[in-house]
Write a structure and sequence with these properties.
The complex is a heterodimer.
Chain A (H helix, E strand, L loop, with lengths): L12 H10 L3 E7 L5 E7 L1 H29 L5
Antiparallel strand pairs in A: 1-2
Chain B lengths: L1 H15 L1 H25 L4 H12 L2 H12 L2 H19 L1 H30 L29 H10 L32
Classes of the chains: A alpha+beta, B mainly alpha.
Chain lengths: ~80, ~200
């Protein structure tokens, strides 16, 4: 997904998952996978969806501002 | 704000339900490994290779578990309890050391209480009068024996009291302890005793 630019050990995801779960942003349930194996399935909650929307908007605003500042610098620093 | 309260409550709950959560984590990690191995074998790896690759991609299993525990519970409290248990075990093992430590602590605390009660009575507690900073002692001019020389007869005291214009009031006290000296402990209107 990250185009191999970010490579994390798969094990690190479990701490993040439990944190998201404890904030009520995702829910987990045991189920059966396509090839009939028991697995835990995570789904985003309504609260999580709202949080994601808010954080996405914030992130886009932030990167937009940073992008504009950096392109201004590249152009020679005029206003 | 609400989210952090939610998270804290969940952390406290996790702190008291370690065993089921631990079992759940174990099951989840096993399921993860099984799926990864199966996936690798479908790509044509041998079972040993598939397992090895899965473990490599996963990273340290124990580190993952530790991070999971830190994220879900109260790690600071866990460490504190661990330290307390270790200290208690150590004390139980070395009884002589424990008794000496307890004895030293007891002596130290006892000495502190004694010194504090003396300092509190003499230095810290205010005098039992209104505006104690306005109190003054009348001292004679004789330098021979200092304060020990300053005693007055009852007549002198009454004379002082009668002619007093500078002070609100005058009183006297008997500083030398004799066998029939009594200590006043209560507080109320003073009255005069004549023998």
């Amino acid at each position: 997904m990250s185009g191999d630019e970010v490579l994390l050990n798969q094990g690190t995801i479990y701490a993040s998952l439990v944190r998201l779960q404890q904030r009520g942003w995702i829910a987990a349930a045991w189920g059966t996978s396509d090839n009939n194996r028991k697995a835990k399935f995570y789904s985003i909650t309504k609260k999580g969806g709202k949080q994601l929307a808010a954080d996405t908007a914030y992130w886009q605003r932030l990167t937009g501002v940073i992008g504009r500042v950096l392109s201004m610098h590249a152009k020679g620093g005029e206003k | 704000m609400m989210d952090s309260i939610h998270e804290t409550l969940n952390r406290v709950r996790s702190f008291f339900h370690k065993e089921p959560l631990e079992r759940e984590l174990e099951a989840e990690l096993t399921a993860h490994m099984d799926l990864a191995i199966e996936e690798n074998m479908q790509r044509g790896m041998s079972q040993t290779d598939a397992r090895r690759q899965a473990l490599i991609r996963f990273g340290g299993v124990d580190q993952a578990k530790t991070r999971h525990r830190e994220a879900r519970g109260l790690p600071a409290l866990d460490i504190l309890l661990q330290d307390l248990r270790y200290a208690l075990r150590g004390l139980r093992r070395d009884r002589v050391f424990a008794s000496v430590a307890v004895l030293i602590l007891a002596l130290g605390i006892g000495a502190n209480i004694v010194v504090f009660s003396v300092v509190n009575t003499i230095l810290l507690r205010p005098l039992p009068f209104h505006d104690p900073q306005q109190l003054a002692t009348i001292v004679g001019t004789s330098e021979k024996a200092g304060l020990a020389d300053v005693t007055y007869t009852v007549d002198t005291f009454e004379e002082f009291k009668e002619r007093n214009h500078s002070f609100q009031d005058l009183t006297g006290y008997y500083a030398y302890s004799v066998s029939d000296n009594s200590i006043l402990t209560g507080r109320s209107e003073p009255c005069l005793f004549l023998k």
